[in-house]
Amino acid sequence: MKNAIEVNELTKRFGKITAVDHISFEVNRGEIFGFLGPNGAGKTTTIRMLSGLSRPSGGKASILGLNINSEITGIKKHIGVVPEVSNLYDELSARDNLVFMAQLYGVPSKERSKRAEELLKTFRLHERKDDLFRTFSRGMKRALTIAAALIHNPEILFLDEPTVGLDVVAACSLRNLIRNLHQQGITIFLTTHYLEEADLLCDRVAILVKGRILAIDTPETLKVKTNKKSLEEVFIKITGLEPTVMVIEKGK
Amino acid sequence: MLRDNLRAIYYIALKDIRTYYLKPPAISWGIVFPITWILAFYLRMPGDFRELVPGLIAMTILFSTTAAEAVVINFELRLGSLERLLLAPVTVPAVLMGKIAGGAIFGCIMTAIVTMGSVFFLEIHSNMLYLTIIILISCMTFATLGAFLCVLVKEVFEAQTLLNLPRFIMIFLSGVVYPISKMPLWLQYVSHSLPLTYTVNGIRNCFVNGAILPVFKDILILIGFFILFLVLAIRFLHKKFE
Lengths: 252, 242
What we know:
The complex is a heterodimer of chains A (252) and B (242). With 252 residues, chain A is of the alpha/beta class. Chain A has nine helices and ten strands. Chain A starts with a strand and ends in a 13-residue tail after the last helix. The mean pLDDT of chain A is 89. With 242 residues, chain B is an all-alpha fold. Chain B is globular, with a radius of gyration of 18 Å. Chains A and B meet through helix 2 and helix 3 of A and helix 1 and helix 5 of B.
């Protein structure tokens, strides 16, 4: 099986609003696939459908050959999801948060502590392993949330806006970490509206606006096709979303 | 699938008990409040204290099972931690059952302390088997009622306010401190639509004669309430995640 994810005409409606509008795409095994778009484009809604948090209004999707409508529990055993908000438990320590996630995912009891310790070392949080999650900085919380999503050795990792709100150093560390995970063969589905980040990390990107995919290709091919130098320029050309110029007059 | 869900229920309940229930606010709300309430009535009518024991136990069940549910459910809904549980290979009903089980286990512990204390201190004879069954089922029923009310609203303070409404209605109308038979007829009908009435009745029947039939009827009605609250809670929680 070549594709990790196959999406066909996937749609999500909330009343009269169509958040995701008949989108189709494939994600190859082992690639970093970027899902780019402005706020409200439907990126998070797509992740929620693919991870079983929300039911599609129409269309089909499969992950590792399993149907998201009928085999979602099986799918969840093979995917890790890092939501936009770092939502682990404030009252638990870093280590206890990871062990709890291992328990939920059915990691064998003998391996839980070992796996948690390994991840804490990988993410350089080992020295703070007994500290409560609420005492962590935003970057550390993000790192631990990603570690929690990896506790059961998933084949596919969904990252929803992973670097939002992080300072430059924390964001850079996180990008290095994403590269490392990619080298280990994990398929990564990344949503972001930081286009430089997508350009640096992604093998292929899809540009999503108002629930519809406007383009899918490698960043380099998109640049050649549109005759632009950066992914940001490509994005502006394809979407037609011109940045507004705001002039603040002195003294007003 | 079933194994995954049972494991999730167990670990979610365990985590909630450690994180939220075994903390001073839950313990005080779950046990100090009912004892204080009953003591107030005892000081007014010391001779009738034995009569108040079923009500005391029922109130302990009601308050202890719902003591931390607003935090366990609404606080986690707000943080997104509850949704995070659903990223694991478990179903919405299993997550909800985990939350309910945490409240029910805490309620059982608190109620066991109050019941053992009352039974031994006042030397009350009772059918311990029936008493245990009715306490266990009541703990599940009221923890489920609490979960249902919590999933109706968003904020912790809204849930706490909403939880107080049935709590205080049931204290006055379910025969906890005032006999139902002395109420006006229309209020008696209201009483019989409240689950706490059947807990109080069931416990009283265990103390009075221990006959199986009246207790069995109370148990069946409480199971009916449990199923009703559970179905409604699952439905509303599903809607929340959409």
